[in-house]
Structure to design on (905 residues):
């Protein structure tokens, strides 16, 4: 009842404001008066988007631009509670885990006023995403392997607002792919069907002129390499009751460097920007800036090359454990990442509902950070000599100086600092490390991608156990990420046939656990939790890579921005943010 | 008589320019396509992360943009479209290449024009002053400052200027605002820091070149003659010495202009967030956006050829003894 009264008041105020030709509308929400006002400017320096025609996009920026005008089916809050967006109710999964029933809201509209229907979603899947002519790059997300063949899942319209997706195999975490789904309007897309060039250049899709009331904002302008501008959508379906969103415009301003982006925040020229760790203390001291430190899903690893062109010692678990034991994770988290990180021991981040410390081997901290013990283990394994003073010097099997190659992406200061720190730690064991700072494309092509020597294989990130990279390496420092809700996606790194298992790690037990996490057994959440606990324990013990640190991110806002809920999914409610 | 041979020369050079531009366009077209990278490279990491087969997807993406056709067929189609005024579709910005260039050239042009003017006018004036007052304290000061100017990297100077004049003093915005009307004082104000950033290195160099060229001519016999004839000093310096010193200066200034057009303004554009052609071309190269790379190379080539031709023509006016026939 109270909600109804608030709705009526808001509606009346909206009518008054619109009738007076003004953009301003206000609504009491029990937390003071919230007015539509101001322009929110977000500073970014990661490069521009490629396209607003999202089905053609390869980059996250393109999806984030489109996301301002087009909601997905659902998102998660910071505690991973589902927040419905275009969904009328949560997706229903059949007891056998094969049929997903999706019911969308009945008040979603395209720009011409026609309703968004289940038919639009099914059309988008069947005729666009699954088609051969458009070549949607991520169509594999919607395929499953049946009798050795890849087949698409089956979408079907049930009625105006309901459709189903049927699988032939169980995959419990498929639901997270569904939540991200957004539709194209069938009535426009049909015009371009079968003609990839016309679809690519379609003005409706490149100008987002079809998005109706599907997002908090409407597209206004995109000046490449400069700014992306959206303006308030007064018809937004989630804004009906509360008058949201509360910014007149939302602008993404691009900067070439993080230094200029941060200078713009400090000068008050922009509203919000990410802040580099070394600048956090300074920004915390500024009276007009509020800094939020939040956990992320990203972590840094030190990969051990277990392929034929890496040091042979790295193929032994005990050697990898000893090396991990020699590197202090607290020093990395505190001294290099300035406290904006915490030691990692496995692939599941602390914020994940699947996180557990039970049985996890904490290499690199406390009693498992012990250089003397590490040297002793390596000596026992035959990789070392006892010197005259009784100390152990780690060597190769022949007693010769052990020299390792550590490759790191040039240009990232924390990564470079970590590489030099690791060299110092290994040097204390007697291991010499040659650091190679290389550009990212070189790192990928020459060190990460591999092929079987003498074969006609196209280089890939994992071309099987016999494949090796073009250049020899022993250690690579790089960033990985885990989806906190669907950690089984990390099978690409650690399963023997994982697409990103460039290290050449192989353990049948790990393969089996990842397969179980993606099977019918895992429909039972308790069973899945046990599988993930076992995976965490096993990988922390096996050390296919040295899990170094989970990162925290820092974001600076002008102090008058209200409604922010800091957390791992900060921004899930950004349509409710407002200027004080 | 003079006009006749100059006209013939210009026509001949323009014809050569067309052939050279076509040659460079063809070489660029082939080079970018036979190289190891592909516009589909950007998908690789994401695809592998999702366990997809990259080779299959790369083939599909290349088919989408017609890159799977034989290179000669691609070349033929490209040239045909080019002759019809169609420069293709930018793969990394999702818009027609011509439209992309039309939108962004002005940002680079105004920056380059103002920086060159700033550097040339101030540099020449200071250079003349330094030469005339050789070995005075002012000359030493300008020499010292010009060495600093030559040594300072653009991007560092830009960031420093932003920190001092934008963050600390609040006089300028921290970035270039593209919403300002082009012909307005506000736009001119927004360009002050970028122009100083891009122009300082050039200015310092022009000071050195002008001083040296002036000193060289000041020692020549015609200066003694002019002074002996009783010509006022400003006429000797301005009309006789400077005119003779101008010839090498024109070469250097025009050469600089060509270099800037070919991406020299990139760092300044990056620091101040100016979405000019420098940024467009660098992003296109890293994204393997072939149509934009070829178009920008063609435009750059044409500009350099035009600048060279203009330099040659200016020579004939500065020194009437120069003939190209």
């Amino acid at each position: 009842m109270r909600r109804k009264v608030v709705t009526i008041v808001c509606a009346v105020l909206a009518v008054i404001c619109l009738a007076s030709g003004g953009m301003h509308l206000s609504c009491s929400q029990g937390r003071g008066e919230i007015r539509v006002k101001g322009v929110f400017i977000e500073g970014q320096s990661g490069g521009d988007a490629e396209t607003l025609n999202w089905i053609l996009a390869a980059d996250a920026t393109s999806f984030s631009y489109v996301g301002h005008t087009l909601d997905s089916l659902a998102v998660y809050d910071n505690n991973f509670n589902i927040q419905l967006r275009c969904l009328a109710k949560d997706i229903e999964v059949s007891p056998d885990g094969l049929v997903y029933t999706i019911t969308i809201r009945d008040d979603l509209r395209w720009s011409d006023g026609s309703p968004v229907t289940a038919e639009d979603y099914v059309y988008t899947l069947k005729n666009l995403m699954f088609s051969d002519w458009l070549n949607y790059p991520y169509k594999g997300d919607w395929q499953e392997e049946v009798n050795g063949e890849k087949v698409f899942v089956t979408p079907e319209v049930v009625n105006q607002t309901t459709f189903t997706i049927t699988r032939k195999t169980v995959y419990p975490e498929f639901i997270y792919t569904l939540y991200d789904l957004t539709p194209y309007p069938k009535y426009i897309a049909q015009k371009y069907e079968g003609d990839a060039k016309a679809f690519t250049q379609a003005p409706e899709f490149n100008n987002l002129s079809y998005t109706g009331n599907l997002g908090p904002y409407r597209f206004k302008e995109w000046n490449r390499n400069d700014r992306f501008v959206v303006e308030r959508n007064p018809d937004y379906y989630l804004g009906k009751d509360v008058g949201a969103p509360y910014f007149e415009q939302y602008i993404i301003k691009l900067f070439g460097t993080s230094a200029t982006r941060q200078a713009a925040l400090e000068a008050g020229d922009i509203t919000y920007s990410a802040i580099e760790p070394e600048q956090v203390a300074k920004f915390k001291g500024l009276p007009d800036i509020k800094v939020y430190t939040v956990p992320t899903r990203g972590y840094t690893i030190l990969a051990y090359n277990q392929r034929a062109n890496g040091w042979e010692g790295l193929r032994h678990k005990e050697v990898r454990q000893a090396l991990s034991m020699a590197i202090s994770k607290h020093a990395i988290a505190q001294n290099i990442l300035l406290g904006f990180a915490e030691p990692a021991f496995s692939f599941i981040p602390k914020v994940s509902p699947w996180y557990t410390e039970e049985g996890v081997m904490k290499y690199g901290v406390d009693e498992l950070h012990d250089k003397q013990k590490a040297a002793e283990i390596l000596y026992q394994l035959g990789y070392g000599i006892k010197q005259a003073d009784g100390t152990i010097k780690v060597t190769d099997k022949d007693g010769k100086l052990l020299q390792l190659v550590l490759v790191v992406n040039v240009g990232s200061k924390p990564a470079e600092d970590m590489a030099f720190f690791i060299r110092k730690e290994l040097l204390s064991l007697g291991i010499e490390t040659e650091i190679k700072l290389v550009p990212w494309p070189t790192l990928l092509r020459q060190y990460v991608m591999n092929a079987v020597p003498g074969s006609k294989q196209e280089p890939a990130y994992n071309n099987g156990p016999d494949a090796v990279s073009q250049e020899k390496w022993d250690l690579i420092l790089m960033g990985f990420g885990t989806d906190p809700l669907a950690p089984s996606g990390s099978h690409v790194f650690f399963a023997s046939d994982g697409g990103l298992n460039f290290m050449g790690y192989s353990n049948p037990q790990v393969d089996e656990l990842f397969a179980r996490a993606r099977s019918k057994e895992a429909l039972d959440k308790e069973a899945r939790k046990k599988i993930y606990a076992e995976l965490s324990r096993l990988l922390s013990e096996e050390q296919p890579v040295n899990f170094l640190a989970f990162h925290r991110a820092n974001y600076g806002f002008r102090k008058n921005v209200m409604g922010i809920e800091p957390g791992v999914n900060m921004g899930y409610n950004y349509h409710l943010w407002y200027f004080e | 008589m003079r006009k006749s041979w100059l006209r013939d020369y210009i026509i001949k050079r323009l014809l050569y320019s067309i052939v050279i531009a076509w040659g460079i366009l063809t070489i660029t077209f082939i080079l970018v396509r036979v190289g190891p990278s592909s516009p589909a490279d950007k998908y690789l990491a994401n695809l592998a992360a999702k366990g997809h087969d990259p080779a299959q997807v790369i083939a599909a993406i290349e088919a989408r943009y017609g890159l799977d056709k034989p290179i000669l067929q691609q070349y033929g189609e490209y040239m045909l479209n080019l002759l019809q005024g169609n420069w293709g579709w930018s793969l990394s910005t999702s818009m027609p290449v011509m439209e992309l260039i039309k939108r962004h050239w002005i940002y680079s042009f105004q920056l380059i024009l103002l920086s060159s003017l700033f550097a040339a006018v101030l540099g020449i004036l200071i250079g003349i002053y330094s030469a005339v007052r050789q070995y005075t304290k002012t000359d030493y000061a300008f020499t010292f400052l010009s060495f600093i100017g030559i040594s300072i990297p653009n991007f560092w100077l830009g960031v420093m200027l932003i920190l001092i004049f934008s963050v600390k003093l609040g006089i300028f915005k921290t970035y270039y605002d593209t919403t300002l009307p082009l012909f307005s004082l506000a736009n001119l104000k927004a360009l002050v820091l970028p122009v100083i950033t891009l122009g300082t290195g050039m200015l310092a160099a022009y000071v050195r070149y002008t001083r040296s060229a002036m000193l060289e001519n000041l020692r020549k016999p015609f200066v003694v003659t002019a002074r002996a004839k009783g010509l006022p000093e400003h006429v000797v310096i301005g009309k006789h010495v400077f005119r003779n010193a101008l010839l090498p200066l024109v070469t250097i200034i025009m050469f600089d202009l060509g270099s800037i057009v070919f991406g020299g303004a990139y760092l300044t554009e990056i620091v101040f967030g100016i979405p000019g052609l420098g940024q467009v071309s660098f992003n296109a190269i890293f994204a393997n956006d072939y149509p934009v790379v070829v178009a920008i190379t063609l435009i750059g080539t044409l500009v350099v050829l035009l600048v060279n031709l203009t330099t040659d023509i200016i020579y004939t006016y500065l020194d009437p003894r120069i003939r190209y026939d």
Notes: The mean pLDDT of chain B is 90. The beta strands of chain B are 89-90, 95-96.
